Amino acid sequence: MRGAFVKTLTELAGQDPRIMLLTADLGYTALEPFAEKFPDRFFNVGVAEQNMIGVATGLAEAGFVPFAYSIANFAALRPYEFIRNGPILHRLPVRIVGVGGGFEYGHAGPTHFGLEDAGIMRIQNGMTVISPADHQQTRTALQRTTNVRGPIYFRLGKDDRTVIPGLDGRFELDRVQVVRDGGDVVFVCMGSVTSEAVVAADRLRNDGIEAGLVVVANLHPAPADDLADVLSQFSLAISVEAHSVNGGVGSLVAEVIAERGLDCRLIRCGVRSLPEGISGSQTFMHTVHSLSPDALCATATSALEGLGRGARTQAN
Predict the structure, then answer these.
(1) Strand residue runs (E) in 89-173
(2) d(CA 231, CA 185)
(3) Is residue 166 part of a domain?
(4) Which CATH number is 18's domain given?
(5) Whose CA is closest to 86, among 49, 118, 129, 115?
(6) Contact status, residue 310 vs residue 184, Cβ threshold 8 Å
């Protein structure tokens, strides 16, 4: 997604002289297309994420649209108070780009896991939070949010090859994207881990279980009406996120079910424990935290057996 981000941002910057790009000494072999074309609009502030947000806030106050780029946990956690007191409280168009959410930097160890970023950004009422599922949706999300007032947090992956079948790059604020229909269970997904749920849904279908799948790329403001419409059609929903189960898309789905009084059981698949010194590839870490296709299939099958296999709401 970061390749799609840089390419699209470079195109947008050619049309809009207000766009700038800041980095906290990261993005080598990724940000060069923008830096080379617009050297006067590219700033490396060094390993100083708080200062980066301060600079971005000043640029936004002066009429620019700055994008502040770093690894997800460094972009969201280290300068969090600066984000709240700057672009959020002053309603400024600072775009914060957190790359490698979840376990994409898994080999670097727990300090580089991005497991809380979407949650802490979602609780800030002035922040728009976007977590695309693939690079095509990343491009559309950037294009369709150029005029959003106030700050945006983009949670991006590094993968510029994997495509979510049926998503076709669709993105709209305040909407969810239905990727496939089903009747027995629906996977509600956030971010690049959606690809794991796609494989799980295919395997379930081969076993005679109709698994639907929706992408929630816009976490805040919440697409509550769309989610309620989808969830009202199922007796079982499984949220899937490479993020803590607290605060992310699983929490959002639980809120919608509770507030709308929906007859839908929810199982949240995500990270439920503190890191214990284990590191490894993203695939390995997904297996450890039951986010692999095998684990998602087992979760769905077990839950459906508890409900009565293939059970659906009266709406169906």
Answers:
(1) 95-99, 128-130, 152-156
(2) 10
(3) no
(4) 3.40.50.970
(5) 49
(6) yes
The DSSP symbol for 126 reads T
pLDDT of 127 higher than 60? yes
* CA–CA dist 228, 255 (Å, integer): 10
Calpha distance 223→174 (Å, rounded): 4
Domain CATH code at residue 238: 3.40.50.920
Do 195 and 267 share a domain, yes or no? yes
Is the bond leading into 221 cis (omega within 30 degrees of zero)? yes
- pLDDT tens digits, 228-287: 999 999 999 999 999 999 999 999 999 999 999 999 999 999 999 887 888 999 999 999
Cα–Cα distances in angstroms (integers) from residue 239 to residues 24, 75, 186, 269, 298, in the given order: 32, 25, 8, 6, 14
Residue 33 lies in domain: 2-156
| From 70-84, 264-278, 300-314, the region with the lowest mean pLDDT | 300-314
pLDDT of 185 over the 60 cut: yes
Give the torsion through C-alpha atoms of 96, 101, 105, 109, to 10 deg. 100
Q: Is residue 58 part of a domain?
A: yes
Concatenating the DSSP letter of every residue in 244-263 gives: ETTTSHHHHHHHHHHHHT--
Contact predicate 184/210, CB 8 Å = yes
Look-up of token digits 């095509």: 136
Task: Dig out the tokens for 182 from the structure.
Answer: 């089903």
Residue 239: name the closest of 302, 187, 200 by CA.
187
According to the model, what pLDDT value does residue 230 have? 97
Based on the domain organization, do 196 and 262 belong to the same domain? yes
The mean pLDDT value for 158-185 works out to 95
How far is residue 246's CA from residue 173's CA, in Å, rounded to a whole number? 23
